[in-house]
Amino acid sequence: MRRLRYLPLPSLLVSSLVSTSVFAAPWVEADKAFFTEAANAPSSKVDAADLNGDGLIDLVFANGGGFDKGDDISDYPQQAFINEGGTVMNDVSASIFGQTPYVGRAVKLRDIDYDGDNDIILGTTWVTQSQLFLNDGGGSFSNVTADNFPKVLASVGDVEVGDVDYDGDLDMILANWGTGEGSVAQTSGGITLLWTQMGDAGFGEPGTGMFEEATLGQMPNLPVRWSWDLEFVDVDNDYDLDILVSAYAGDKASLFLFTNDGKGNFTDATAGNIPQGRFSLDVEPIDLNGDGFVDLLTLHDGLSGRNRLLINDKTGKFVDSTDLLWPKLQNPASFDFMAAFYDEDSNGKPDMVIGAIQTAQIKYPDRLVYEKAGKYESNTTAFTELKASAGTYALVLADLTGPGGVPDHRLDVAMSQNENAFDKKVLIATEEVPLDTIAPFLTNVEKLGAIQYPGNEVIRLRCNDNKSPLMLHDFKQTGNNEGFPYIETWDMEPADPDNMPGEKSEPGQWYGEYLWRIQFAVPDADVMWYRLCAIDAANNKRCTPLEMTVVEGGSATESDSKTDTDTDSDTVTDSTDSQVSATDSTVSATDSTVSASASISESDSTVSESATQPTDSGASVSMSGIPTDAESNSDTKSTISDSDTSATASNSDTAFETANGTDLDDDGCGCDADSSPAGGTLASLALLGLLGLRRRRK
Questions:
Q1: I want to staple 41 with a disulfide (CB 3.0 to 4.6 A). Which of 63, 65, 159, 289 is the partner?
Q2: Which DSSP symbol is given to 591?
Q3: Contact between residue 296 and residue 317 where contact means Cβ atoms under 8 Å apart
Q4: Using one digit for the tens of pLDDT, what is the confidence trace for 13-34?
Q5: Strand ranges, E, within 198-350
Q6: Residue-wise pLDDT tens digits, 471-487
Q7: What gap in Å lies between CA 80 and CA 72, rounded to an integer?
Q8: How far apart are the C-alpha atoms of 293 and 306, rounded to whole Å?
Q9: Count of CB atoms within 10 A of residue 553's CB?
Q10: DSSP bridge partners of 47
Q11: Is 0.70 surpassed by the pTM of this model?
């Protein structure tokens, strides 16, 4: 039935949209010595994470049969592969899953109980019980479904995790196809399931790993027909997790939006906020235009089966901008099943890796869709395979290996296949994929008001490495997860934050989508200077500009950062809530950059008038160097916010130009996470002199 829903382009036209002579293949199928499997089992999803704590990324495939209905032979053994030294993926399926077959439909590898290791959530379909396998920390798993999961027989299409009620532990949503007999394409669908984790975990404390049904009281009573994908997405930047649910068999809607009241109670907010299509197979969120709000890619629900780009208008309402951003010849009718975002060329703009299945009429290709001057173009020869993937249902990006078995900071691709082919595949990134040289992006940074000593505070933000979905291994994990977002604080203004280390918090905690929360101890001081930083797996570091806030109850100090509020100080106190304005107290990246000749440009001596963008929730969106649509890689200014204020990099021609072969972080230094910024004595003296003019002692 689904093959008659669109008018396909001729196969020759589809395959010739991009000349094969223009591109070399970024990915080549791994040899059999690295990855081989012979289960011949249909697989709907694949996920990647470190399962045994050795720092290498492993794979798990969800196997199960049946396209639109199950039968007596739909159950299959599940498959797991441990990465042994980056040289071979070792099949450990039996040791993890035992001999019991399941109708696997979705799999998520996440630290579901916050105990420091990755667990396995297996969503099963055709009215069966989904499964939970908890990790003991060393890669041994126990099936705890009987005690830890609600006893619910469901037809699950997808699973996602996040802290919906903000009680400190991770909860779970499941796309539900219903319990009707026959083809799910003809049934009324099912209500999206919500399972909340029992107990209230304190910050940084393990959860119980035990879940209870919360669907009836907290989810909309709205059946969704045949949902292949759902996602947690904070659509309005209020730091709680809203839900997007795709609908492949929806009569009038291809995508549903359920908004969160902050306590885990969801309301259907689809009408007026989501432009609709038909037959959606996937929805993938990321910030496409650098405005600090999450945008959406949807697959197969556009005209004639095309994909769509929906841009957030900064209120949580989405506008279909497909034709503006993605020319029709580069976005033809297709049968795309899953996509992941990845900044493949390390230019600071997210590209797309898309998996498709082939029909009897047309050989739809898996492909790379890359951003070029604000538009998207396709490379249909991105994958060199021994045999073309005829049934790509899902894919995941992870750095599995590199030369000599050492991860090389180029993301490889693992694929699951179903319906038309059953081979699992791993494709290794070649040197055509540039090394990762772009640091993580930190946006929607929460604005701190006056804070109280003694005590602990929490600050929230959105942080990712320009790929989807977010994986903990996207960040540097050595030294107690030191690359996870953290806050660095000072009780006086540091002249050079990189050479004057402050007090660093414990690593932040991911709680869904790209959202993090960071807890820190309030210092005994009258003011606190701070910045937020993150380091990715390739050791690229980015920090937000310095900001200052008032500490109440702390000891008064002779801090150089303390200013009088009744004179011409650089910080301005908000008259409504006695809160130091984040915009006036923010030191932009260029303020700490001095040229080698110790000459200071006009922009260096000016504090950014607005380094954050306020939102309706009272938060501030710190752009932290994300290129906007108006910028190209040759731009000479890096826009910090949507305001007219911009910061000029005094010793760089581009927003992401390198110095001495390494990336500029947001503090203007030419350094990676382990190096110190280069600068002469004259430059340092000039900077200190400039800062001295801007300060007043108490």
A1: 63
A2: G
A3: no
A4: 444 444 343 457 999 999 999 9
A5: 211-213, 223-224, 230-233, 242-246, 255-260, 266-268, 282-286, 295-299, 308-312, 318-320, 336-342
A6: 999 999 987 899 999 99
A7: 24
A8: 24
A9: 13
A10: 60
A11: yes
